[in-house]
Amino acid sequence: MSIFKEKEGCCEATFRSGGPYWHAYTSGKDTPLLFVRDEDLVFVMNVVAQAAALFPEVWVIAFEVMNNHFHFVVSAEENSVLAFWAFIKKRLARLFPLMKGLQITLKPIEDLGSLRNNIVYTNRNGYVADPAHTPFSYPWGTGRYYFLDWPKGKALGRIFVDGRRKMFRCRTPELPGEWEATYGYVAPWNYYVLKFGMAMFRDAHHYFMMVSKNVEAYAEMAAGLDDGEFLTDSELFSRLSSLLRSDYGVSSIKDLTKPQKFDLARKLRYEFRSSNGQVSRVLGLSRYEIDSLFPLVAER
Questions:
Q1: pLDDT by residue (tens digit) across 152-180?
Q2: What phi, psi does 192 have (nearest 5°)?
Q3: Residue 74: which of 59, 90, 95, 52 has the closest Cα?
Q4: Are 258 and 285 in contact (CB under 8 A)?
Q5: Domain membership of residue 243 as a residue range
Q6: What CA–CA distance (Å, rounded) separates 52 from 50?
Q7: Distance between CA atoms of 192 and 123, rounded to whole angstroms?
Q8: DSSP H or E run through 154
Q9: CB 25 within 8 A of CB 104
Q10: How far is CA 112 from CA 8, 10, 191, 220, in A?
Q11: Is there a single domain that holds both residue 152 and residue 207?
Q12: What is the pLDDT of residues 204-262, one digit of tens each?
């Protein structure tokens, strides 16, 4: 048996040992900003840790917290996932009232290939939205831990009661004392099934390839999740060169006529799910022109 087949067989066996699998997410398209400051996101991360401690039957494989929406890839029964989310929503709604109207959607994940795509899509989410980060540095989720080392934290049991109450904004929750906190929040490696998630990939090279070179595969996923941008500006630029040659017979955006730019803007919006801001940046058109072209999706 080849090394490839052997590794792939191990991944399949690990996949079959878990389940059912879900991508649980909330929509970011029409949701206003929920979390504005880093302190807000620190608190959200601690609430996710609380939920993971209360619902250990929910295996958190990957997740990302954005300013106005969530992505979770989990393995558990549907009712457990809903209870997990209900706790998070209730806790956060006390400080962020807009959370009350946020609805979770569960999409089943049926096979190993789909699970891999959902993990990578989730771990890329913060990177796509925030140009200050790589797929391996966004702090509000699991992307920075897959196939990477992580900093040593401070055990919760060594943090004074007042410090823990400040972290969770409530009476000290019952979390394992050996769980470690970094940067003010309980580090995800304490409660998400990192080794299980990484075992879905043949090795670190396989994961890196999917994060950095398999981005076209996420177009269909973004459409299925009714999500927005799935490419960074740089990734979109690199894919425009072939589109310019094949569809317009030119090699540069500056060689397009204004009607051709508008036509390309529609392709970016509907095929690449680019936001009005991204279309404007990439094509060099004004926000007024793009917002006029796509008035119903102009960012608030």
A1: 889 998 998 888 888 988 877 888 999 99
A2: -95, 150
A3: 59
A4: no
A5: 233-297
A6: 5
A7: 13
A8: strand 154-155
A9: yes
A10: 10, 11, 22, 17
A11: yes
A12: 999 999 988 766 666 666 666 667 667 777 777 777 877 888 888 888 888 888 888 88
CA-angle at 232, arms to 237 and 134, nearest 5°: 125
Q: Write the burial class of residue 114 (CB in 10 Å: 0-12 exposed, 13-18 middle, 19+ buried).
A: middle
Domain match, 144 and 287 both: no
Q: Name the β-bridge partners of 73.
A: 23, 62
The pair of structure tokens assigned to 61 is 């494989």
Written as one letter, the residue type at 184 is G
Q: What is the DSSP string of 244-264?
A: HHHHHS-SSGGGS-HHHHHHH
Type of residue found at 176: P
| 121/195 same-domain check | yes
Domain match, 29 and 79 both: yes
Q: Please give the Cα distance from 266 to 262 (Å, whole number).
A: 6
Q: Please name which of 245, 239, 300 lies closest in space to residue 271, comparing C-alpha atoms.
A: 239
246: left (phi over 0), alpha (psi -120 to 50) or beta: alpha
